[in-house]
Structures are given as C-alpha cells and as structure tokens.
Amino acid sequence: MKHARIFFNNEILTVTVNKQDQVVTEQGDVLAEGTFQWLPPCEGKAFILAINYADHAAELSFKAPEEPLVFLKNKNSLIGHNQHTYRPDNVDYMHYECELVVVIGKEAKNVSMEDAMDYVGGYTVGNDYAIRDYLENYYRPNLRVKSRDTCTPIGPYIIDAAEVKDPHNLMLRTYINGELKQEGNTKDLVFNIPHLIAYLSDIMTLSPGDMIFTGTPEGLADVKSGDEIITEVEGVGVLRNTIISETDYLANLAK
C-alpha cells in the first residue's frame, strides 16, 4: 500500500496511490495529475544523517564517522513531489542528495537493534539539497547549508514497510535533466537502519511519522535554475523537483 498527502479543492487529504501511481481518494475517485498538489507525506521530526556512505565521506574529504552524525530539520524545509526548490543567488555550488527515508510507524523508545525493524512503518524518497559554499565541516552543516525553505523535497508517497523486501539492498539514482549523475546502493550504508533507530530512540522518543534520512552516496553535481532533478530509490518511488532562482521564488511569494 502507498499513502500520500495532497492539497485538493482547498483541503489537505490523505489518499492512497494505486499500482499505476494514480492518486485515489477515500471515496474511490481517481485524480488526474495537475489537479492537485503533492504535499510531504510525513509531518514528524526529520532526522538527517551526515556522510552515512563511506564513498560520500571520501568525496567530501572526510573520514567515515565512528557514530551517527545527525541533525534535525524543521518542516519549513520540506516540500512535496513536483514542487520547486530555489537556488540562492550568488552561490557557487548547490547539490542534491538522493536518500532512502525511513518512516517510523509506532512510538519507539530505547529500542534494541534486534527489534528495530518492527518500528518501521514505511519508506519514501528524500532529496536533501545542500549549499556547499557554507559547508565548514560535517559537524556544522545545518542552517545555511541545509535548512532553508524548500530545500528538502520528499515523497511522492510512503510505501508500506512490508512491500520493501530488503531496504539494505536498494539502488539510489539521481538524474539532472534526464542524465544519470548519481548511483549507489543502500548496502553501503555506514550505519544501517536498525543501528539508526536504536541510536536515535536512545536519545529521544520516536513517534509515528518521524523521518530518518539515511544519507546519500557519492556522485554529487551542481544544479542550476531550470534544472529538473529526479531522485529515485529502487522499489520505493521516484521524486521529481525543479530548481528555480531565488529571485523567482521571492517574486512568487509576493503574489
């Protein structure tokens, strides 16, 4: 089963998505693409893993961490499928980060690694954009690098955990304007999903709808205004997003 949140007829609706990736309302109506707006499928806390792939750590000239490096994002950064992310004016390098996102399905506190997968409700796709200009080191990646408005597309939907046979062997790919730029596999995670759930639930209570962005592999590239970015996780979903300029973004806000 796939679940999504959309904005339709001035209402926020929770809907299902069928095998043809069509949105179906609770009343059984199939909605045509373009008649609604995709929203982030989750509304919980967003935990972001820094350099959780060894090849990505090497790409940034960092060593792989000895324990998870995690920071939190607020909901202002989250946007849905087919939405716009703005590139700030006067920056030199902005890149995507294709990620498998784990969605917590039930309250979790002090969970063991052996039991951790029981707390996964589903999975979705995330794209954690970063402004490399401001990256000082991996302990300080947050506010200017990764926490501005619109910089975290997520979706289009959540697929139930039971439908993903092995989340630790999934291909991740990113395309810029149809050209493959990034490719990796979740088997190369430094810290796997049970480790992350155990680690985070030891620090704080995890709630249904909380999201764990598990990190991105190597293969980063600069993105420009007008670029269409597609991030996909095998068996989970395909997330589409377009880059616009900060000038256009602010002009749209003023309307």
Give a quick set of tags describing it:
12-stranded mixed beta sheet; 255 residues; mainly beta; 5-stranded mixed beta sheet
Please provide a written account of the structure.
This protein is mainly β. The protein is built from 4 helices and 19 strands. The chain has helices at 54-59, 143-146, 193-203, 246-254, and strands at 2-8, 11-17, 23-24, 30-31, 37-39, 46-50, 69-73, 78-79, 83-87, 94-95, 98-104, 120-127, 130-131, 152-160, 171-176, 179-185, 211-213, 228-233, 237-245. The chain starts with a strand and ends with a helix.
Q: Count every helix, treating DSSP H or I runs of 4 or more residues as helices.
A: 4
Work out the radius of gyration.
17 Å
Query: Which class of secondary structure composition applies to the elements?
Result: mainly beta
Q: How many beta strands in the DSSP annotation?
A: 19
Unreliable residue runs: none
Helix-strand blueprint:
Elements: E1 2-8, E2 11-17, E3 23-24, E4 30-31, E5 37-39, E6 46-50, H1 54-59, E7 69-73, E8 78-79, E9 83-87, E10 94-95, E11 98-104, E12 120-127, E13 130-131, H2 143-146, E14 152-160, E15 171-176, E16 179-185, H3 193-203, E17 211-213, E18 228-233, E19 237-245, H4 246-254
Parallel strand pairs: 6-17, 8-14, 9-19
Antiparallel strand pairs: 1-2, 1-5, 1-14, 2-3, 3-4, 6-7, 10-13, 11-12, 11-17, 12-14, 15-16, 15-18, 18-19
Gist?
The protein is mostly beta strands and 255 residues long.
